Amino acid sequence: MQHENTGVDPEAYKSSAGYLFSPYDGVRSIAEIVFGGLLDPERLARMDSIHHFDSASPSASEVISALVKNAFTATVAAHADLSDVLQNALADRLMILAVDDNATAEVRAEAWSGVNAVSTHVKGSQSGNAAAIERRIEAFIRDPKQNVPKLKPSGAPAGPPI
Can you give 1-34 as a three-state secondary structure string? Predict the structure, then answer.
C-alpha cells in the first residue's frame, strides 16, 4: 500500500499530512461531495416543493434527519476517527446552511433543526470530538453570524470526481 504522495501529479490529493496521504482528507472529500450536494439550499427548497405535491418524495427535513442519524450512529472503534471527520463536516455544513442568506426561511429552519439534532447526539457522548462539536454549536447559537464555521478544503484534485 502506498502511503506517500510522490511526484507532481495533478490527480494527487494535497494532503494535510504533508507528503503522506491522509485518510481524513479522503473522508473530507467524500463529505464535500455528498453533503455539498444534498445540503445545497436550492436543492433542499426543490425537495420541499416536490414533497408538497408528492409525499413519497423526501422533504428537506427527512434528508437532514437521515444525514444526522447516519453520521452519529455508533461506529466500529477502528474507524471512529474517520467518523469524527464526517461528523465535524456535517455539523459545520448544517451551521453554515442555517445562516445562509441564499436559503429560504424554511430551509434555514430545517438546518437549525439539524444543528439541534447534532447537539442532542453529542451532549451525551464522552468523546473529545463530541465535546468540540458541542462547543462550536454553543458558540454558534450565541452569535450565529460571528461563529459560522469555515470549511477546510479536502485537498481533492480540481474537477468533478470520476
Answer: CCCECCCCCCCCCCCCCCCECCHHHHHHHHHHHH
Please tell me what DSSP assigns to residue 156.
Answer: P
**Integer angstrom CA distances of residue 4 from 42, 90, 130, 153, 162:** 39, 28, 30, 19, 22
| pTM for this model (two decimals) | 0.84
Q: Confirm if 67 and 130 have CB atoms less than 8 A apart.
A: no
Cα separation, 143 vs 153, in Å, equals 24
CA atoms lying within 13 Å on the CB side of residue 3: 2
Higher pLDDT, 55 or 22: 55
Question: How far is Cα 147 from Cα 160, in angstroms, rounded to an integer?
Answer: 30
> Would you state the cell numbers that stand for residue 7, as one nine-digit string?
511526484
DSSP 54-72: -TTSPPHHHHHHHHHHHHT
Q: What mean pLDDT comes out for the span 97-115?
A: 97
Q: Which three cell numbers stand for residue 109?
A: 429552519
Check residues 1 and 11 and name the one with the higher pLDDT. Answer: 11
Q: What is the pLDDT of residues 68-77, one digit of tens each?
A: 999 998 776 7
CA distance 83 to 18: 22
**How far apart are alpha carbons 151 and 117 in whole angstroms?**
20
